[in-house]
Amino acid sequence: MPNIKSSVKSIKRDQKRHLRNLAEKERIKRARKNLLEAIEKKDVEEAKKLLSLAHKALDQAAANNTIHKNAAARKKSKLALKVNAMTA
Predict the structure, then answer these.
(1) What tens digit of pLDDT does each residue of 47-71 get?
(2) Could you tell me if residue 65 is left (phi over 0), alpha (psi between -120 and 50 degrees) or otherwise beta?
(3) What is the pLDDT of residue 36?
(4) Using 50, 70 and 90 to split pLDDT, how confident is the model at 15?
(5) What is the DSSP letter of 2?
(6) Would you give the DSSP letter of residue 58?
(7) With the C-alpha atoms ordered 75, 70, 27, 23, is the resulting torsion angle positive or negative?
(8) Is 27 left (phi over 0), alpha (psi -120 to 50) or beta?
């Protein structure tokens, strides 16, 4: 454990950020999983609704710098392709 006050504060701040990032990433995983399950069931309406929720989760994670904005765009694109392929 560090002795310097700023280092102690830095460790506390890092722990808070870590927990926030874990929660954000878990939210992304959950949204993606729910969407893929809807695609498997061939439920078009549910998939479209879940796609917008997944996009929102990815956008928020990118805005908070939890994931890179290009990674978010790539994941959104992949999910949209799957939903569009199902509807076509």
Answers:
(1) 999 999 999 999 999 999 999 999 9
(2) left
(3) 96
(4) very high
(5) -
(6) H
(7) positive
(8) alpha
Residue 62 token pair: 């990118």
Which residue, among 79, 84, 80, 82, has the nearest Cα to 32 in the 3D structure? 79
Residue in the structure block whose two tokens are 């479209």: 48
Taking the C-alpha atoms of residue 34 and residue 51, their distance in angstroms, rounded to an integer, is 9
What gap in Å lies between CA 78 and CA 83, rounded to an integer? Answer: 9
Instruction: Using the predicted structure, report yes or no on whether residue 6 has a pLDDT greater than 90.
Output: yes
Torsion on CA atoms 85, 52, 46, 48, rounded to nearest 10: -30
Q: Are 86 and 47 in contact (CB under 8 A)?
A: yes
Tokens 């999910």 sit on residue: 79
